[in-house]
Structures are given as C-alpha cells and as structure tokens.
Amino acid sequence: MGKCRHPIDETALLRFCRARVPGFPRACASLDVDQFAHGQSNPTYKILALTRRGDVCGTYVVRKKPAGTLLKSAHAVEREYAVMRALRTTNVPTPDALALCEDARVLGEAFYVMSYVDGDIYLQPRMEECSERRRGAVYEKMARTLGTLHAVDPRAVGLGDFGKAERYGERQTERWAKQYEASVGPGVGVHAEESMMTLIAWLRSNAPAKEISGRLVHGDFRLDNLVLSRARSNGDDQVDVLAVLDWELSTLGAPYADVAFNCL
C-alpha cells in the first residue's frame, strides 16, 4: 500500500457504495482509502468501510481509469468488470465484481467496485523467499488455472461477442503497434526506437494466418496477477489460486498467446 498518487473523492465513493454495492454495510460511516503501490495502469485502491467508532465493517477494492487523455481502447475497466461478472459461474477464480460506474461525474472517470481477496502475491518470478517445493506448487497451480480459463466456452458465459474470434495475432500486433505509434513522434516529444519499428514491421509480415482462436484469453497472465492462499510455512506446498487479477487486456483469441507470455 502507499500514498494515494491519484486521490479520489471519498464522500462520493461512499455515496455510490451505499446505493449500488450489494450488501454494503449499513453501519459504514466513512471510508479509509489507500492506493496499491505495485503496478496498475488503472489506479487501484483498497477501501476499508469504517463504523463511527472506527471499526472495520467491510473491505473492498476500487479500480478506475486514470485521469487525462487516454489511448483508444486502453484502460478498459468496463471490460474487466464484464469478464469477471461472466466468470462467476465458472471455476476460474476472480474477485466478485460488485458494481460498475460509468458516470464520470462520480469520481472523474469510470470505475468499479470488487471484493477484496486476501492472500499472497509474489512480485518476482523467482520467488526467492519461498522453498523449492512451494515454488513448484505455485507454478503448477498457475498452469492449471490458465488451462481452466482456456477451457471456458465464451458463448456459454455470455462472452461470445467479447472480441473478434479470428486472426488474434494480427489484431494484437496492430493494436500495440498503433498504441506505440500514438505515443511517439514530434507531437509528444518522444522519438520512435528504430529497433521497435523494425520489430513492428516484422510482426506485421509474419502474423500467423491460421491459429487456434476463439477462446477467452487473459492477455496479461503472470505471477503477480494472482492472489494465492497464504503459506503456513516456508515449505508449504499446499496452495490454491484464490483470484486472477487485472483483466484489462482480456478478449477472445489464441490461448497459446497467454501460455507464451506466461513463460517469459
């Protein structure tokens, strides 16, 4: 946790939670807000619901779009919310997506409220603080969780139109190429890297014409986007994935893209 780099209107948020979040505690008189320090292109906050005596009566997470001019299709908190809601009926572990607000008058940008999942999050892939047994168990569970995600039939959970099913590699190349090109050049005072432009040209020429596609992909499936059951000891190899986080880049596409990214 850290200092709120992107402060939010706590009074407006409390008013929204009382009106829209299912089961929000009636005893809540105020909110304590802390911004998560690690990562996030979308500012993310831990929210404690407090009684008049200062006792915690509920814990939530708020994730919102950042302020300012945004790249087209980036920071799609609405898509995150939609996919987590859809996955509630599957075996893919996600936080409970509780309420979405698309009215920018509330907090300045669109945001959603979800449940807080308490557990271990490992920021470094080597997991040097853990035993070899626990590292192995974590990576096995991570792989099995990814397989569970890719086994979901998007149409069965209402995500049949969540993205174009074909030519995922080509679409991803174009998406990231256009975002990179929009972030460089004289207008923004940043020069394009020649090596990056060479890579973009190569990818555009070599994107696979045929691929396994049409599955739900996460788009950023990595260790630090998983909440894991807490270790009872350093050698504890009994682990479960409690939640998969950060669904901003999820869409329909080729599952091997998730596998390849996870192996980096």
UniProtKB/TrEMBL annotation:
A Pfam family this chain is assigned to: APH
Gene3D superfamilies, alphabetized: 3.90.1200.10, Phosphorylase Kinase, domain 1
SUPFAM superfamilies xref list: Protein kinase-like (PK-like) (SSF56112)
Domain Aminoglycoside phosphotransferase as annotated: residue spans: 33-260
Annotated protein name in UniProt: Aminoglycoside phosphotransferase domain-containing protein
